[in-house]
Structure formats: structure tokens, C-alpha cells
Design goal:
Number of strands: 8
Number of helices: 2
Order of helices and strands: EEEHEEEHEE
Shape: globular
CATH superfamily: D-tyrosyl-tRNA(Tyr) deacylase
């Protein structure tokens, strides 16, 4: 599992020219699920994201988590994060989880953020072509991974 975490001033997801989800300040998460990923992997990264201290305190130190600053998450499924570009110029996506299982874990991930960690969480539409807009804040961008090597 790979998650790109971007601290944003705002972010939105549009499908077929209709804005389906948006947040003001918070985190934009790009989620890539790989073959072999489990609910335990999803639980571990959801917990990690809920506790990431990447928001500034009164001394401008990255010391606060998303709950402490009362901000939201926009979660976007993005299988292209699992691209293998080692050979040739065309990416291979053989490491990406099959769509049905990936959709199940993606929904589970978002449910954990909402219900377990009580973080307002909006989502994109799994498997759809989406236009994602954002204003990066900082910029602060992290890549979190849960590997099975």
C-alpha cells in the first residue's frame, strides 16, 4: 500500500464536470493498493495518518495532527501509484490490486478515518476518471508505504 499525503489549503474531486467532493484545509490522500495488501496494512496506515504531526503549532513547528487542527481529508484511489517503470517506457500495473478487492479496502480505509479516528473524510469515485484540484500548503508532501518484502 502506498499513500501520498499532501497538506492542502483546499482540494476537490470532479467527475463528469460535477464536483463530487471537496475540502478546505486538510490532507489530500492519493491511495494505491497493491496485491497482497491486507486490512491490517490499511489499519496501520489509517492510524499513522491520523497521528501524523505535519501541521504547525504556534511556534511554526510541525507538531500537530489533523484532529488537533480540526481539518478534513479528501481520499482519492489512484492505482497508478503502483506503476512499475523499471523496464521500458510504458508503465506496468501488474502489482496493483484487482479492482474489486481494492475498492473494498479503499472503502474500509475511508471508513476507519471517519468512524474510528473521527476525521471528516470525503472521497473520490473508485475507478472513475477524476479531475483533482488542490492548493498545496507548504508544500508538505509525504509518501507512506506498507511493504510486503
Amino acid at each position: 500500500m502506498k499513500v501520498v499525503v499532501e497538506r492542502v489549503k483546499n482540494a476537490s474531486c470532479t467527475v463528469n464536470n460535477h464536483c463530487i467532493s471537496k475540502i478546505d484545509k486538510g490532507l489530500l490522500l492519493l491511495i494505491g493498493l497493491a496485491k497482497g495488501d491486507t486490512k491490517e496494512d490499511v489499519e496501520k496506515l489509517a492510524k499513522k495518518i491520523s497521528k501524523l504531526r505535519i501541521f504547525e503549532d504556534k511556534n511554526q513547528k510541525l507538531n500537530l495532527n489533523i484532529k488537533q487542527v480540526n481539518q478534513a481529508i479528501l481520499s482519492i484511489s489512484q492505482f497508478t501509484l503502483l506503476a512499475d517503470t523499471k523496464k521500458g517506457n510504458r508503465p506496468s500495473f501488474t502489482d496493483a490490486m484487482p479492482p474489486k478487492k481494492a475498492q473494498e479496502l479503499y472503502r474500509f480505509f475511508n471508513k476507519l478515518l471517519r468512524d474510528t479516528y473521527k476525521i471528516p473524510t470525503q472521497a473520490g469515485v473508485f475507478g472513475e476518471y477524476m479531475d483533482i484540484t488542490l492548493t498545496n500548503d507548504g508544500p508538505v508532501t509525504l509518501i507512506l508505504e506498507e511493504n510486503h518484502d
